[in-house]
Amino acid sequence: MSDTPFVDSSAAPWTRLADGIERQVLSYGPDLMLVRVRFEAGAVGAIHHHVHRQATYVASGSFDVTVGESKATLSEGDTFFAAEDIPHGVKALEKGMLIDCFTPMRADFLEKKP
After folding, report:
1. Domain contains 4
2. Separation of alpha carbons 53 and 62, rounded Å
3. Residue 59 belongs to domain spanning
4. 47-99, pLDDT tens digit by residue?
5. Is residue 114 part of a domain?
6. What is the largest distance, in Å, between two alpha-carbon atoms of the chain?
7. Distance between CA atoms of 100 and 54, rounded to whole angstroms?
8. pLDDT class for 11, splitting at 50, 70, 90?
9. How far apart are CA 103 and CA 60, in angstroms?
10. Tally of domains within the chain
11. How many CB atoms lie within 10 A of CB 51?
């Protein structure tokens, strides 16, 4: 957690995750984390799972989304929820952005990679 409750998103770094995908960690504390993820058209957030609960808001664009055995196409204003250890992933049908909220926070997102 930072010394201030405010985050200037223009100063928060972006991390390249894969071709056409970048993540920006915004605000967080031990029990909650807010993250912004940019996708180029066609970029795939591979199916994965983790111990965190995740709620995601589609800020822009449209995405094919898989959560467990369920599939849907979501667009701006839509959301999805992935419970802990439930496989989930997305494919960007067009350029877009997701806002992810995790509980507890994703400490792995803060680790420095060599």
Report:
1. no
2. 22
3. 15-108
4. 999 999 999 999 999 999 999 999 999 999 999 999 999 999 999 999 999 99
5. no
6. 41
7. 7
8. very high
9. 23
10. 1
11. 9
- For 67, the token pair is 């959560």
Give the residue carrying structure tokens 């928060």: 12
Token pair listed for 54: 């995740």
Assign 3-class secondary structure to the chain.
CCCCCCCCCCCCCCEEEECCEEEEEEEEECCEEEEEEEECCCCEEEEECCCCEEEEEEEECEEEEEECCEEEEEECCCEEEECCCCCEEEEECCCEEEEEEEECCCHHHHCCCC
User: What's the order of all strands across the beta sheet hosting 62-67?
Assistant: 44-48, 88-92, 62-67, 70-75
Q: What is the pTM of this model?
A: 0.93
Residue-level pLDDT at 5: 87
**Which pair of structure tokens corresponds to residue 1?**
């957690």
What are the structure tokens assigned to 56, written together?
Answer: 């995601």
The answer to whether residue 7 sits within a structural domain is no
Paired with 73 in beta bridges are: 64
Domain of residue 52, CATH code: 2.60.120.10
